[in-house]
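Form 7-S
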Amino acid sequence: MTTTPNTTTPAAPATPLHLAVIVGSTRDGRFGPTVGDWFTALAERHAGFTLDVIDVADLELPADHPDWGTERTPALTALAERVDAADAYVVITPEYNHSFPAALKHFIDLHRSEWEAKPVGFVSYGGAGGGLRAVEQLRLVFAELHCATVRDVVSFHNAWDHFGENGRAHDENGAVGAAKVLLDQLAWWAKALHTARAEHPYR
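Output:
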């Protein structure tokens, strides 16, 4: 008996999953918005997601976690709801002294259950290391928060040399290809974990 190979592309979810893009740098003169705008434009064209961009530089975060006695303000509650609403995350991070920004860590630490059982991807930028050491440390942080980090990363080494004044990457083919792999992996994990959470709550 002859069988026909199954070449059907898996269907996208009836309702697109929700992706939060987190821009992690808050320094004056930061390069994060250039990388973030470039990636967001690609993500908006991906059929699997709707988007929410959370720029840490735009947030007024409390000095302490609400669980430690700080009042949970309406703004902080609304922010937690945005984090919780996401089915997946992409963190855009620079590398500062072989690690990631303190403001990004503070933002991550202000939430806990909102992150659980969801996938996280990374877009990094920096000097010769391309931000990859920051990514490896972030993997440890998100593992502690019960997240699944995807393998493939979009990384810009000496990032300022990779973008023109119009904000477009010079090597569009390579960068766009890497971003597509990342988004496809996130979509797979987001759909799988969304289904799992719906069928059996994580906690």
